[in-house]
């Protein structure tokens, strides 16, 4: 029985050690990827002043990002993003309105299509993914898994190029540790509206989950100015508290999953080694016990052969007759 248990444990050890190897080499590469079923809503609020009135007003923004699973694959994910910014003076405006809105609340609305590497988060501009959409540069909607404390290229939709996102330390957001990155664009020449040239400034701060690269919180101060010096748009807004809370909850859940994946090689490896040691001990001990039983059967009285007292095994016959013994000796002579 011990031998069977030992064999079972050694088989289990092989399974656990194989699992540890896969968890170390293969599984992280499959888990640390942007999911293909992304469908997220990001809401922002703040203040803005814009032409023609130039007066400040509360604003709200919605960014809806959906992954195109049909165009995505194992390495690249394709996204479609819709963004809408409207005034929200009474605090009860819908997420978005169109340009026929009688209250003229629409400030700007746009759509964007882009593709990113599912591991690094960097833009992919192959036409088979994005078709004739505008090519992107750098990171677009998230940072890579395992964020480093360094400068990353980050896409700016108005400038149509990547700008520097500089690491500026670690900060807690709702008690959750994040990496803080800042994008600072100052008076860059740009097309600030349809066909209208001017200068563009943006101070964007992003708080990033270090493990997944997801943006947990974001604020931005943006200004668009005509060549004449007239301000077209002066915007100061950021993620709502509800959005930040939901992002942190997602980060905690994903962190637990990824943490388990990272610990799995160690846990499975240790259990595999223990199972192998115990299994070998039981199996080897059982072999020794069986050998001992065999020797006991062959040498049952502790040293005297079992057949020593049996007359029928006397190959020389009856040796009690001295005369017969002498005749046998004489014959050999």
TrEMBL record:
Q: Where are the transmembrane segments?
A: 264-283
Sorted alphabetically, the keyword list is:
Membrane, Transmembrane, Transmembrane helix
Query: Which regions are flagged for Basic and acidic residues bias?
Result: 292-301, 323-333
Protein's UniProt keywords contain Lyase: no
Q: Which InterPro entries match?
A: PorA
- What ranges does the record give for the region Disordered, renumbered to this chain? 292-333
Q: What Pfam families does the annotation carry?
A: PorA (PF11271)
This chain belongs to the protein called DUF3068 domain-containing protein
Instruction: List the source organism.
Output: Knoellia flava TL1
């Amino acid at each position: 029985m011990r031998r069977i248990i030992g064999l079972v444990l050694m088989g289990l050890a092989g399974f656990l050690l194989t699992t540890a190897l896969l968890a170390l080499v293969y599984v992280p590469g499959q888990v640390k990827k942007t999911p293909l079923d992304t469908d997220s809503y990001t809401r922002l609020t703040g203040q803005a002043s814009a032409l023609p009135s130039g007066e400040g007003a509360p604003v709200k923004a919605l960014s809806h990002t959906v992954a195109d699973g049909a165009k995505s694959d194992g390495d690249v994910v394709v996204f479609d993003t819709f963004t809408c910014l409207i005034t929200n003076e009474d605090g009860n405006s819908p997420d978005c309105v169109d340009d026929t809105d009688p209250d003229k609340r629409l400030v700007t609305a746009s759509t964007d299509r882009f593709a990113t590497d599912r591991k690094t988060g960097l833009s992919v501009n192959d036409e088979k993914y994005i078709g004739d959409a505008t090519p992107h540069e750098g990171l677009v909607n998230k940072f890579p898994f395992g964020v480093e404390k360094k400068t990353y290229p980050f896409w700016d939709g108005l400038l149509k190029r990547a700008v520097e996102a500089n690491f500026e330390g670690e900060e807690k957001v709702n008690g959750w540790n994040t990496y803080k990155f800042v994008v600072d664009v100052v008076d860059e020449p740009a097309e600030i509206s349809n066909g209208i040239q001017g200068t563009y400034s943006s101070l964007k701060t992003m708080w990033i989950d270090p493990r997944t690269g997801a943006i947990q919180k974001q604020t931005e101060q943006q200004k668009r100015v005509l060549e004449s010096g007239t301000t077209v748009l002066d915007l100061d807004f950021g993620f709502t508290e509800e959005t930040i809370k939901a992002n942190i909850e997602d980060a905690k859940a994903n962190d637990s999953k990824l943490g388990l994946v990272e610990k799995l090689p160690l846990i499975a490896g240790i259990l595999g080694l223990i199972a192998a040691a115990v299994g070998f001990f039981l199996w080897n001990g059982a072999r020794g016990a069986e050998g001992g039983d065999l020797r006991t059967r062959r040498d049952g009285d502790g040293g005297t052969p079992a057949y020593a007292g049996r007359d029928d095994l006397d190959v020389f016959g009856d040796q009690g007759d001295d005369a017969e013994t002498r005749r046998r000796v004489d014959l050999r002579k």
